[in-house]
Specification:
4-stranded mixed beta sheet; 4-stranded antiparallel beta sheet; 24% helix
């Protein structure tokens, strides 16, 4: 019996397929896994460890209480509009958009006793503004665990967040008791200021 070229090739293909299917070896690399997002997360493209750029929808970026970063949360929270103005005018607006930032963000009511905060927005008071803003920003692990303990703020000073009867304080600043986890860090709303506005 004579085997033709097409029959021979067909037999080789079938043999190769059977050999591949019966192989007990596992691939040396596992295929990449896609991230699964819950409906409450912003709509974005897949993010890999090598790439830190993420494409968010306009709603995720500009919508109320955006959780893209501490900066986006602050500027989209109406009760933090004063602090948003201060941070936006300071040298720290871009810094708190980076990964791993913890921002203690005073709510508007915290400034009731410090009416001179508007003076910080003047160009000649830029150094005082930066000194004020950096008191509220820390680099650290962005986790939802308690922030109680020692931290170093952007001014380079070690400060301590302490528990006083179940309430957390940083100096005189009362942490509201809630932490907002964003994709790049944590925002902790403050109901009082940490210190005085100094010009």
């Amino acid at each position: 019996m004579t085997i033709t070229a097409p029959q021979f090739l067909g037999t080789l293909v079938i043999a190769a397929l059977l050999s591949a299917c019966s192989s007990s070896e596992t691939p040396s690399e596992t295929p990449p896994q896609l991230e699964v997002s819950t409906p409450s997360e912003p709509v974005r493209k897949e993010k890999t460890r090598e790439s830190t750029s993420t494409n968010y929808s306009a709603k995720a970026i500009k919508g109320p209480y955006s959780t893209v970063s501490p900066w986006r949360y602050i500027v989209t929270s109406p009760e933090m509009s004063i602090y948003a103005k201060l941070v936006g005018t300071s040298n720290y607006g871009k810094k708190i958009h980076n990964d791993g930032m913890i921002v203690l963000a005073p709510e508007n009511g915290a400034f009731d006793t410090q009416k001179n905060w508007k003076s910080l927005l003047k160009e000649e008071n830029k150094a005082a503004l930066n000194s004020f803003v950096e008191l509220y920003i820390f680099e650290g692990p962005a986790s939802g665990k308690s922030l109680e303990g020692a931290h170093t703020n952007m001014a380079g000073a070690e400060v301590h967040i302490v528990d006083r009867g179940g309430e957390l304080f940083l100096g005189d600043g009362h942490l509201s008791g809630r932490q907002v986890a964003t994709d790049r860090g944590i925002v902790v709303p403050l109901t009082t200021l940490i210190g005085e506005v100094e010009l």
